[in-house]
Amino acid sequence: MTLGMNRRSVLLGAAAIPLAGIQAFSLEAAPVVATTSDTDEVRTTPVPHRYIHGLMRSDVKFQVLLPVAWNGKITILTRGFSGTELSAGAFPTAAITKGYAFASCDEGWSRSTIAASPQDDYYESRQSLVELTVYTKALVQTHYGRAASRTLLVGGSNGGHHTRWMVEAYPLMFDGGISGYGYNSQLTQWGSVAQLVRNYDVIAPRIDDIIAQRAKNARWDPFKERLSPPLTKAQLIALGNIYDIPMQLTNGFRYNGGRWFGSEVEWKSSYNSLLGYLGDSVPRWDETYRPSGGRPTNEEAKLWNPLKSPAYVQIDMRRQDCHGHLARPLIIMHGTADTIVSAGEGEGYKDLVAKTIGPREAEKLLAVYYIPGMGHGGKEFDDLIPAQIDALEAMIDYQQSDGSRGAKAPAFIGTYPREPVTGPGNSLGFYNRSRRR
Question: Which whole number is the average pLDDT over 137-164?
Fold first, then answer.
């Protein structure tokens, strides 16, 4: 059933206002132009809703889902590194089933084409998400006849990074966020991937032995308890270089993005994916990295180190660094076996926020949960999206009412306990161990 016209232009407003140096937006002024050019129809699953698909700025594809039984609120999704506006996973079902209007977009770039597309940029996500949110708020007001009372930002992986990055930057636009298995800096994230794959090559002949030993003893320390036959010195060094990857953000904050004990089986299964990320994207991240004079081969991409790239390359990549100036509630859930994005990124962000705004305020605003054995997302995370939304809503209510409504972050989401805001927590991460070489 078609509800709207094809190729309908909608002019919706956005205006920037200052708040202690942070940009915020309202609906009163400069237009955001969106064209619903291909789809505007009723869909019945998982619940009855109006579905709209179209374009912003002529090249940013978006979708909006407007449930019949609207709860008065909006959920905006920021997508994964390899995704499109349709790569929303379990989020839209969870959102519209609960009554939220839901929107996502492709953010204006694609992993597979960005290296050859000078008009596209990773940082374009920031503009696209702001425009999508402004557009969706105005569309919701037009459709339902009243303004949304609350807007959540959610996402996993690259979207998990964007969630914490955007919630920090736009506290008047987003009331809170769910940051699933995300990272803190584009430069440190992809530099760590290159470090992982080149060191994995050294230990690859023994990876099955390492996996088997870890399965026998979750607390096995390869630097104290030798395999039989023992790992070579070079293999032990390579193993340490995977468990221990020092990170530093643009503000000088340091943390460890090494992969955690228990993630070894994921190193093997994720290797080709990690190499694919580098092969697609190193040519765009660093145009100067041309060891053979042309586009880097996969073998060359493994050797890329962004800390050796020219200053302007590092500055560009660091535009997406998180800073820890959190002013809205945020939930992080991360698998301890994640190899694509280390769970150390969640631990690092927890410590960054505590250092930046103080442990007491961080305790109110940030809740971090680890899912043992989960890799880069998974059913365990997806099944708990509704519970994460409920917990986030309670945290927002608690903050906005000065504690008279809602609740603090729960001690558990599902069966997974909340990590302490300061200190090493309960994980088996290598970050809290001294190097054993």
Answer: 97
Rounded average pLDDT over 340-367: 96
Residues 126 and 198 in one domain: no
Q: What is the DSSP letter of 418?
A: B
Q: Alpha-carbon distance 207 to 215, whole Å?
A: 12
pLDDT digits 0-9 by tens, 257-291 = 999 999 999 999 999 999 999 999 999 999 999 99
Burial 134-166 (b: 16+ CB within 10 A, else e): bbbbbbbeeeeeeebebbbbbbbbbbbbbbbbb
Residue range 91-126, pLDDT digits in tens: 999 999 999 999 999 999 999 898 888 898 999 999
Place of tokens 């140096």: 21
Q: What is the DSSP string of 88-115?
A: -TTHHHHHHHTT-EEEEE-TT--TTTGG
| Dihedral over alpha carbons 93, 97, 99, 103 (to 10 degrees) | 10
In a domain, 291, yes or no: yes
Full residue range of the structural domain in which residue 84 is found: 1-148
Same domain, 136 and 265: no
Angular region, 144: left φ>0, alpha ψ -120 to 50, beta rest: alpha
Angle between helical axes of 186-203 and 264-285 (0-180°, round to 10): 130
Coil, strand or helix at 436: coil
Which residue in the block uniquely carries the two structure tokens 């293999």? 235
Domain match, 134 and 204 both: no
Single out the residue of 282, 365, 286, 280 nearest to residue 324, CA to CA.
365
**pTM (predicted TM-score):** 0.91
Question: DSSP states of 202-271 as a string?
Answer: HHGGGHHHHHHHHHH-TT--TTTS--SSPPPHHHHHHHHHHH--EEE-TTS-EEE-PPPTT-HHHHHHHH
Sequence-distant (≥ 6) Cβ neighbours of residue 150 within 8 angstroms: 72, 73, 74, 175, 393, 396
Instruction: Say if residue 219 is in the same domain as residue 80.
Output: no
- Sheet with 176-180: list strands edge to edge: 8-19, 22-43, 49-56, 60-67, 101-105, 73-77, 150-156, 176-180, 330-335, 366-371
Helix (H) or strand (E) run with residue 142 in it: helix 124-144
Which distant-in-sequence residues (6+ apart) come within 8 Å of 165 by Cβ?
126, 320, 322
In this structure, are 209 and 283 located in the same domain? Answer: yes
Interatomic CA distance for residues 369 and 346, integer angstroms? 9
Residue 170 falls within a domain, yes or no? Answer: no
Q: How many CB atoms lie within 10 A of CB 86?
A: 12
- Domain stop point among 304, 319, 334: 319
Per-residue confidence (pLDDT) for residue 430, from 0 to 100: 56
